[in-house]
Specification:
Blueprint: E1 15-17, E2 22-27, E3 31-37, E4 42-51, E5 53-62, E6 67-74, E7 79-86, E8 92-98, E9 105-110, E10 116-124, E11 138-142, E12 145-149, E13 157-161, E14 166-170, E15 177-184, E16 187-193, E17 200-205, E18 212-218, E19 223-224, E20 231-232, E21 236-243, E22 249-256, E23 262-269, E24 275-283, E25 289-297, E26 300-308, E27 314-322, E28 330-333, E29 337-345, E30 350-358, E31 365-369, E32 372-378, E33 382-385, E34 391-393, E35 405-409, E36 413-415, E37 422-424
Antiparallel strand pairs: 1-31, 2-30, 2-37, 3-4, 4-5, 5-6, 6-36, 7-8, 8-9, 9-10, 10-35, 11-12, 12-13, 13-14, 15-16, 16-17, 17-18, 18-34, 19-21, 20-21, 21-22, 22-23, 23-33, 24-25, 25-26, 26-27, 27-32, 28-29, 29-30, 31-32
Length: 425
């Protein structure tokens, strides 16, 4: 993935309209995660930028997707913003990787105005580079704690309080890659992949992170974890992935929180696709489900969105097609819109993109974007049951020798990215 430099390069030729959907974009394609703060009706996106030396990127938007502020951190070397989450007081937490720090990982806390509250370096003396992963590192807040999944090499997990003080740290006893997580008052639900980064695994840890309550995997090796974003409902973890035996099917797993059983496995089918991934799975406050898939067909990249009722009835299907980049990375939803972090291209330049699409499925239209065209139209994908999995206990166990962590005030310096965000509606 190419980093994006500071600043904004305006393009000409953006015309047309989407009739209710909004595309917010800025130069480059370095966004990775999105968080919706319902208490303040605000969105945060996490990523990175590069202008000689890479820096983190954290941007805030109001409910109309108008940019409120942009913040950054520099480590003196390559720095990547990854996970972003928030607490009930409106504070926002960012995690990521920074090669200029001892151990290679960091946590940072900002208030809702974008004022930095604290920053921490996180690393392991046993595995010095365990936190430095440019593709897999995630954090989230649950039950008054920050949970940080390093992702790389034995899937180490660190738990901290909201003041940045470390509470605990443990690892799995065999190789797993933990790259996503959600949590509630009953525990933490961490998903990732096996030692080879292929079939999906998921584990539930106790609320203090001290023990594993259950662990599951697809022992049939029929599905593939693509480091996609996971979400949750009150009773389930929603995990998108891919059919390992067919490039034409995106897979979506609904896993029961209480015991790890596979409640539902579905697939989104798009015949003739070059390759295909499940990239987002979410539920709105009314109980409806949203499935987001990514299709590459003869160079035309498309985001497919399928909305179903809580009982599984398909309500609508939409396709966002671009002849440039259009790869979704993270998804969230509220009562009015589904929000998708992706990239987009005007034919010569890559841009970070945030899509806001109305939950009633009403938006459609075409926009000329530089030399490229972006179209929102009905989708012909089919949502069906996915079979052939062997959902069983995970072979890796939790509670291996605890890692000795370096957890200290970091030496990262604050910066103010000058990126300008623009909207097409």
């Amino acid at each position: 993935m190419a980093p994006f430099p500071l600043g904004f390069l305006a393009i000409s030729g953006a015309s047309g309209g989407f009739g209710g959907a909004v595309l917010t974009y800025a130069l480059g394609d370095g966004l990775f995660d999105i968080h919706y703060d319902s208490a303040n009706s605000r969105f945060y996106v996490s990523g990175y930028s590069a202008a000689g030396t890479s820096e983190t990127r954290l941007s805030a938007f109001n409910a109309s997707m108008v940019n409120q502020w942009n913040k950054g951190l520099l480590s003196g070397s390559t720095t990547y913003g990854r996970g972003v989450s928030g607490d009930s007081s409106g504070n926002v937490y960012q995690s990521g990787a920074a090669s200029g720090l001892s151990g290679g990982g960091y946590l940072a806390k900002y208030n809702s105005s974008g004022t930095l509250q604290w920053q921490r370096a996180i690393g392991s003396t046993s595995y010095p580079n365990v936190q430095y992963s440019t593709t897999i590192s995630n954090s989230y807040v649950a039950s008054g704690s920050i949970y940080y999944a390093a992702g790389y090499f034995y899937g180490p997990i660190s738990v901290s309080d909201l003041n940045g003080n470390q509470v605990s740290a443990k690892t799995f006893s065999s190789h797993v890659y933990i790259d996503q997580g959600v949590g509630d008052s009953n525990g933490h639900y961490l998903n990732g992949a096996d030692a080879f980064g292929q079939y999906p695994v998921i584990a539930k840890l106790s609320s203090n992170g001290s023990s594993m309550l259950w662990g599951k995997e697809d022992a049939a090796n029929s599905t593939y974890n693509a480091s996609s974003s996971s979400n949750q409902t009150s009773t389930s973890v929603l995990m998108p992935c891919r059919n390992r035996n067919s490039v034409n099917e995106a897979v979506f797993l609904r896993i029961t929180k209480s015991n790890g059983s596979l409640d539902k496995a579905e697939k989104m089918v798009a015949p003739g696709t070059d390759y295909w991934y499940g990239r987002g799975y979410a539920q709105d406050p009314s109980g409806n489900y949203y499935y987001v898939g990514y299709e590459n067909k003869s160079g035309a990249r498309a985001i497919h969105i399928v909305k179903t009722s809580s009982g599984g009835t398909v309500l609508w299907k939409r396709k966002i097609t671009s002849t440039g980049g259009n790869s979704p990375k993270s998804v969230t939803v509220d009562s009015s819109n589904i929000y998708i972090v992706s990239d987009v291209s005007d034919g010569s330049t890559n841009y970070s993109a945030i899509w806001s699409y109305p939950t009633d499925g009403s938006a459609s239209g075409t926009v000329n974007f530089g030399t490229k065209t972006i179209t929102i139209e009905p989708s012909s994908v089919v949502l069906a049951n996915h079979t052939g999995m062997n959902w069983s206990n995970m072979s890796a166990s939790y509670g291996g020798t605890p890692i000795s962590w370096n957890y200290s005030t970091s030496t990262m310096t604050q910066s103010t990215p000058s990126t300008t965000w623009n909207k097409v509606e």
